[in-house]
Amino acid sequence: MVLKALACMAVIGLAVVPSLAAAQPGPAHTAYKPPRDAYGHPDLQGVWTNASITRLERNPRYGKDLVLTEDQARKIEHRNDDLVALGNRPTDPSAKVTDLPADCSDGRGVNCNYNAAWTDPGSTIMRVGGQPRNGFITTPGDGRVPLRKDVRADPFGPRPPASGGGPSDNPETRALGERCLLSFGNSSGPVMTPGLYNNTYQIVQTRDQVSIVVEMVHDARIVRLGGAHIPAMVRPWMGDSIGRWEGDTLVIETTNFHPEQVFRGASAHLKVTERLTPVGKDRMRYGFWVEDASVFSQPWGGEYEFSRSKGPVYEYACHEGNYGLVGILQGARQEDRTGVKTAPTNVDQRVRPAVGEDGEGS
Q1: Are 313 and 324 in contact (CB under 8 A)?
Q2: Rounded to whole angstroms, how far apart are CA atoms 326 and 114?
Q3: Tens digit of each residue's pLDDT (9 = 90 or more) over 288-336
Q4: Range of the domain at 68
Q5: What is the dihedral of CA 267, 353, 185, 200, to 10 degrees?
Q6: In this structure, is residue 122 part of a structural domain?
Q7: HSE-up (13 A, CA, CB side) for residue 339
């Protein structure tokens, strides 16, 4: 009886493993044969963009289905075009914030501080293999990040000061993007996701490394081909990435994330596996798989496609002539002197959903 039970458990175990493996996005199957670089590897080099009005999680407005109909996709894109046109209209210089249309930027900044003319989040629905998508996540089936119910995790990753003060008390407690340390949102990855603007990436390959330069804040990810991860105590920005080639697919495994770089509430145990596969002359499939059992109830992942950019990556001169951080700190010192709180903190702003992730956009 014991042997029979063990045999039954073994069969169940073998049945479960393939199902979990199948959930993880694998190499994109395509007849396209990409050109090779000088070392015989698929040539991924060039400038790419993931700009899109589709976002990481599916919008419940369009149901739980991963694939949208063409009619739904066209309606979303037309609505976005109308919002951009509205945001681009000339503004009366004497107008007050209360005089502006409530949807002037469709969530792009509080009180319309980002006019549409200054943003470039994308104007089309993301298509994968020609299919319009309602989100990037393919696993789990509902297209949402599977947070554990017994763990309290803030997907925006606020870092309360050790002193118990507020985020404006010193520069080290401001957001990483404000401090020009890392991309706003999660542009640089992993997982690489589009944001409000600067959704442009340049890939450069050598025999031993692949570099991914991100226009937003000018981040540069260096992927070492082959070898092992650095010691766990060393935790650089964007983590430690090692890569390998599987046919025409570049597989990148990243661990050792910096403790201040929080992705969807993940912990120091976060591991991200990415797959880059050329699927056409101007298209590259991007798959991602996220693992952190201490925060997520199950591994999760998805896919989208990069397209070639028509222009180069420009320098992002972060804080050149920008007095925003200076003003924030001076305002905090004034509050210290007077005891009067005059403005919300960045923690108040983090709770706003990004365009397309809840009731708005795609």
Answers
A1: no
A2: 20
A3: 999 999 999 999 999 999 999 988 998 888 876 677 778 888 888 888 8
A4: 23-350
A5: 140
A6: yes
A7: 0
